[in-house]
Each structure stands twice: as C-alpha cells, then as structure tokens.
Specification:
With 214 residues, chain A is of the alpha/beta class. Helix content of chain A is 60%, strand content 11%. A five-stranded parallel β-sheet of chain A has the order 2-1-3-4-5, with helices on both faces. The model of chain A has no long low-confidence stretch (mean pLDDT 91). Chain B has 507 residues and is an alpha/beta fold. Chain B has helices at 18-34, 42-50, 66-75, 121-133, 154-168, 183-194, 212-223, 244-265, 292-308, 328-343, 363-381, 387-390, 392-398, 409-418, 430-435, 441-455, 463-483, 488-499, and strands at 6-7, 37-39, 54-56, 61-63, 79-82, 91-94, 97-102, 107-110, 115-117, 139-140, 172-176, 198-202, 209-210, 228-230, 235-236, 274-275, 278-279, 313-314, 348-352, 354-355, 360-361. The two termini of chain B are 27 Å apart. In chain B, 51% of the residues are buried. The model of chain B has no long low-confidence stretch (mean pLDDT 95). Classes of the chains: A alpha/beta (214), B alpha/beta (507). The interface between A and B is medium-sized, with 17 and 20 residues.
C-alpha cells in the first residue's frame, strides 16, 4: 500500500501532474505513510527529471512543470514532518534569490529545482531580493549555501553588496556563497569574494555539493 | 533636408493576410480590455482613469477600452522628424524609408583571442567615431553598447554612454534609461543642451506589466517632446505564449499601453514601436537570438504596426547573433534577419556591432554590418525599369560579339547606381588574395577601423555645449553620490580611472 502510493506520487511528478501530486501527498499523509519516505520519493522523482535535463533528454518546460508538481506536494509533507518532529536527511540547506533591481527568474528557478534534486533543502527568496532580506534569510535559516542570481551588469554588483553586508553582520564565514547569471563571470565571482560560480544550472547544483563537501 | 536612408520601391513582404492581421488586432483589444495591464504608477493610473480606462487600484490594473486604444493610435504621426546635432543628419522616420542603427553589446570583444573584457570610456568614444563614419549607419545608441565600462559606476553608464555619443558623433542619438536611477531627467537635459531629439526606449516588463520607472520615463520624455520607442520583449514560452501569434498579442498589448500613456501625456507625440521578441532556448532559458521564430515575429510585427499606421523598428535582426565569434554563423544570423525585416517594411533596423547575444560589441563587426546594411538597403531600392535602364538603343548599337558595354558612358553612369560595392569584403582573384597576405573579412574590417580612427574627426561640440554636458554629468554624479548610488569606494575608482585621466572625455 505504502509503496504503491510512493510510486504513484513519483509518476505524478515525472508526468508533470500538479493536481495529482497534491492529492497523492494528502492521501499519503491521511494513510499515515512515513512523510520522510514520501519526501524521498519526491526528491527521487525530481532527480530523475533533473538528470534528464542535464543529459539533454528533457527541456526547460518539462523541468519547470515537474518542479511545480513537486512544489505543491512539498508543503503538505513538510507540515506533517514538523508535526511528527521527524528529522529530514538532506545534503544541507540553500537560500536562493535574484538580487535587487533584477526580476529575472528562470535561471534561479532552474538552480532551485536542481538543488532540490541534488538533495538540498531549498529556501527560494524569489526575485528583486533586497540586501537586508538576504542577510535576514542567512540569519534565519542558517543555510550551508547562499546562491545569488543576477542577469544584468547593473545588478551584478548587488551580489558584492550582499557579501559585504554579511561580513558586516559577522556571518560571512558561516555560509558558502555561489553566484550566477548572464552578467557573471568566473573572474567577477572571484573579485567579489564568492566561493563559487558556474555558468549552468546543472553545474551549479554539482558545485553546491562540492562546497558542502559531499 | 534629412538623410535619405534607403527607399523601399516595392510592396513590403507580408506573411499574413489582412484578415489574420485584423484577427490579431481584435484579440489584442480583447486582452487589453479583459485582462488589461498591471501598471505600478499612481499618476499613470489616474491619468488613464480620467481618460476612460477602467482602473482597479487594489491590483494596480488598468483595462483599456478599444475606443481609447484606437483614439490614441490615431493621434500617433505616421512619420516624424528626428533632430541630430548636424541638421544634415536629421532623419525623417516612416513611410517606405529604412534607416540603420547600432545594436547593443555589454563588453568589449578582443577579436585576436576571442575574449571578453570590460570596455573603457575611451573605447566607447572610438566606437562612436567609427559609427559616425559609417555610410549606412544613421543612428547611434550610445547607452546600449559597452554597458560595462572600466571604472564607471552602474548608475552612470547610461549617461556617460549618451554623452560619449553626443560628443563623438553628429548623427541622431537613441537614448534609454535604466530603472531606479532617474537617469532620464539628466538624459533629457543633455539632449536639450545641444538641441537634439532623443529617441527614448521605454521598456514594459512582460507579461503585461509596466513598472514605475518606465512610466516615469514616459512622463519625462513625452513632456520633453521626444519620440517614444516602446520596446518590450516577451520571450516565447516564458513571458509570452510559445506561439509566434500568441506572443504577438502580449507584446502588442504592452506596446499599445505605453503608446496610450504617451498620447495622454502629450497628444500627438511620435511613437515608434520596436520588436524584441525571441523564442526561449529551452536548454538554457535564454532568448534564442538568431532564430527563425524571432524573424517571423518581426515580420508579423511590421505588418501589424504598418496596418495601424506607425513606423516600425526592428530589434531582432541585429540582435540575432548567437555566435561568439565573427564567423559563418554570425554572418547568416545577421544577414537573414536583416533582409527579412527590410523586406517586411522595417523603418529602422538596429544592426551594427553586436556579437554574442548582447554580450559584446565590436567596431570590426560594425564595419562588416555596414556592408550588410548597404547590401540590404540596395536590395530594397529595387530594380529600375525605364527607357534609360532598358537601354534598347545601346543594345542595338553594341550588337553581338565583338561588341562590349565596358567602355560605354551608360556603364560608367549606371554600374554605381545598380550595384553595391562592399568595403570590407574580399573580392580579389586567388593569386591577388594570396599575394596580399590571404586577408579575410576580419582583417579587412580591422584595417578599415584603424583607417577611420586615424582620419575621421566628427565636428566637436562648441565650448558652450561641452560646458553644459559637463554640467549635467556633474549634477548627476553629485545626485547619485548623495543618494548612495555611487559608493565612496566606487567614487575613488571612477575619479582615478576615468574622470582624472588627462584625455577625459576622450573626444
């Protein structure tokens, strides 16, 4: 019974069925299937889609649709996990956002999905995120990874300001910082004091794993 | 008398029937009324409401009725004058005339290593001088290329770029402004100081949204009487539907909303919409520059806006270079889009200088693009058929072999008119080419850039004009320093690496 619902849920994600994923997650909770196991099944499904994307077999619309299906199911399970006080096994946690003045979200969405697939717990701050909101999120979630995106040259420098603000708050060394986006280069990342950069979303997910030493 | 540009002497190529264009218009009106546009600007919402639009202030949404749309579109002139620093280089935009402009590119491209690096303000000035010298380039976009200049703080890029364009060229200038900097205020002051018009790009944010900065720019620039160029750029499959026609609707609705606002601010103001829609590359999420979908969208765009009676701008042709090098891919991406757009009736094509999907700009590419512009411009002027070109008398006079046309006066007069001679293309015979060092197009273009920089000196600003430009720039710098948009750290670098250099402002 438990295994069957896990398979159905995986299929819902792989087949981009958000409604199905939500109702199956609820059903799993109602039927007292271990919520941690259900989360693992979801992660496995999104990893399968993420691998397909990285191998060039699937495309962005498929990746985003699968991520959407996962995103509707996740809060239902997280609530259950909180209630039971169970501890979720992850590679670590990541705070992700596009910097202030920049509303480009596609690259960031790809990175969020692939970090999740890799096994990270992801806190997506969205786009147009202010410096102080990044700092507050780092204080609040105490993540292993902070990933910032900027598509425009005019906003790329905001990444430096976030890093400076983290230094001023005395928490720069508590988090590994990755930067990305069309306006960013390896050299720029080094110059502003980031810990890592990759030009692609699958590369960013692999980089996060390296940065946390796993 | 304005610059002639190129005159299209045959019907534009239309890929849709009139019925389909009407269907697109009806559907556009439906979107504008049913869903409307999110506008994040109180004054704009008030103005729209006062003029018959339905405004929902809780969600900042304006629904524009067809009557208001059509009334505002009717107020747009079908052609208009744009003033340059040199009145002989004024442009008369519209009708069957085609002009060419620069396109964008953030950084400098080193063509010896194919590496990208930030440009310097000096290189920006040189790029403007090269653009000023090119025969088939009629408009500069000083703020759009080299947006990444060594030592220049981000909020000053646009203004330093515009000032560099004004100083180093007497041709028409296109301006556009970054959000959040209020740089349009200083841009307008600069243009007024030298008595030129500034074609102003206004960017909505697809889908169906106009943020406060873009609205501010409409108010400031339309009040100044400058031509408005709405340019949006829905990406098919991302910020617009995956279909060419569906994205046309989203784009139309956004550009019409800007047009309506501009006409309400200053009735009769010139509007020239620009197309900048690309399919999404579903591997990277980036716009697929250089794609057939972008070119087809441009052709539909031209047909639709011509049907509405507004002059059009092509932002897809010159922005169609995905290639990181100046190579075969680059050549076909630029040429196919440019030719298709010109055939479809573009009034302006942003073509010159871009390499690598807006990442870089190169003078060498600009010189090569000038040959594409000359080729395409010549093409649309068409084939003249008259007694003189048919040359019956001459044919009868020359007769069969051994007759020849080479030494005839008719040939001397007509070959120039009939043909276009590229300036940076290799047309030598093999032995000549081999002896001359086996130069390719890039070598030839490099030589032309060097020659232009050594010999071409556009007329300088008068000392009074230069003082005014300096005054506006100083005012802007002081303002941004006070606002914290130029940090102390940035200011030290800006002063040392740019402002205090002995040859600043690099004219």
């Amino acid at each position: 019974m438990g295994t069957e619902i896990l398979e159905q849920l995986k299929r819902a994600v792989i087949e981009y069925d958000s409604d199905g994923a939500a109702s199956l997650a609820k059903k799993a909770v109602d039927e007292k299937v271990d919520a941690l196991e259900v989360m693992s099944a979801l992660t496995e499904a999104i990893r399968q889609v993420g691998d397909g994307f990285a191998e060039g077999k699937l495309w962005l619309p498929e990746l985003v649709a699968a991520a959407n299906a996962m995103q509707v199911a996740t809060p239902i399970l997280e609530e259950e996990i909180r209630k039971t006080g169970a501890k979720r096994e992850t590679l670590g946690s990541a705070v992700v956002g596009t910097v202030f003045g920049d509303i480009h979200s596609i690259g960031k969405a790809m990175v969020c999905t692939l970090l999740t697939a890799e096994g990270f717990e992801v806190h997506d701050l969205g786009v147009n995120v202010k410096v102080e909101d990044f700092v507050a999120a780092v204080k609040n979630y105490e993540p292993d990874i902070l990933a910032m995106s900027a598509l425009l040259t005019s906003t790329a420098l905001l990444q430096r300001r976030v890093i400076t603000a983290l230094k001023e708050a005395g928490i720069r060394d508590k988090v590994k910082i990755m930067v990305g986006g069309a306006a960013i280069t390896e050299e720029f990342a080094g110059k502003i004091g980031a810990d890592g950069y990759d030009p692609t979303a699958p590369g960013a997910a692999r980089l996060a794993r390296v940065l946390v030493g796993k | 008398m304005s610059l002639k540009g190129f005159t299209r002497n045959f019907k534009p190529l239309e890929i849709l029937t009139d019925e389909k264009i009407e269907a697109i218009h009806r559907a556009t009106l439906e979107v504008l009324w049913a869903t409307g546009i999110r506008i994040e600007h109180k004054e704009a919402l008030n103005l729209l409401e006062k003029n018959g639009c339905k405004v929902d202030y809780t969600e900042n949404r304006v629904r524009i009725p067809p009557s208001v749309v059509e009334e505002c579109l009717r107020k747009c002139p079908s052609s208009f004058l744009i003033k340059a620093r040199d009145p002989k280089k004024n442009l008369w935009m519209g009708g069957n005339t085609l002009y060419f402009a620069q396109s964008a590119g953030m950084s400098y491209l080193d063509v010896d290593k194919w590496e990208v690096r930030p440009a310097t303000l000096k290189e920006h000035g040189e790029a403007c001088r090269v653009a000023d010298a090119l025969d088939n380039l009629h408009m500069l976009i000083g703020y759009e290329f080299y947006m990444d200049m060594e030592g220049v703080p981000p909020c000053m890029m646009v203004l330093e770029g515009l000032a560099s364009g004004i100083r180093n060229s007497t041709k028409v200038q296109i301006g556009g402004f970054l959000g959040g900097c209020e740089s349009e205020i200083f841009g307008v002051e600069m243009a007024k100081a030298v008595g030129i018009d500034l074609v102003v790009e206004i960017c909505p944010s697809p889908p169906l949204t106009i943020y406060s900065d873009a609205c501010e720019q409409v108010f400031t620039c339309a009040k100044a009487g400058f031509p408005i160029e709405p340019v949006s750029g829905a990406v098919m499959g991302g910020t617009g539907p995956a279909t060419i026609s569906g994205t046309t609707l989203v784009n139309n609705a956004e550009l019409i909303a800007v047009t309506v606002l501009a006409q309400l601010v200053n009735p009769g103001i010139a509007v020239q919409p620009c197309d900048f829609c690309f399919p999404m590359d579903m591997r990277s999420g980036s716009p697929a520059f250089g794609s057939v979908g972008a070119t087809m969208h441009q052709m539909v765009f031209d047909q639709y806006w011509r049907w509405l009676g507004l002059p059009t701008c092509d932002g897809t042709a010159g922005y169609s270079v995905n290639s990181k090098k100046i190579d075969f891919q680059n050549g076909y991406e630029e040429s196919l889009g440019t030719l298709a757009g010109a055939l479809a009736g573009d009034n302006r094509i942003c073509l010159h200088g871009q390499v690598s999907a807006e990442l870089t700009y190169s003078d060498i590419q600009a010189v090569l693009d000038d040959d594409i512009a000359g080729w395409v411009g010549r093409f649309i002027e068409g084939v003249e058929v008259s007694d003189e070109t048919l040359a019956v008398d001459l044919i009868n006079e020359v007769g069969p072999i051994p007759g020849s046309y080479l030494g005839k006066e008719h040939t001397r007069k007509w070959w120039h008119k009939e043909q276009f001679m590229p300036k940076a293309a290799d047309r030598l015979t093999y032995p000549e080419w081999s002896r001359a060092g086996k130069k390719d197009a890039i070598d030839l273009a490099k030589e032309r850039v060097e020659e232009i920089l050594a010999t071409h000196k556009p007329a300088s600003l008068t000392p009074g004009q230069e003082d005014k430009i300096r005054g506006v720039l100083k005012e802007a710098r002081d303002y941004y320093r006070k606002k914290g948009l130029i940090s102390d750290e940035e200011w030290v670098v800006y002063a040392k690496e740019v402002l205090e250099l002995p040859d600043y402002p690099f004219v």
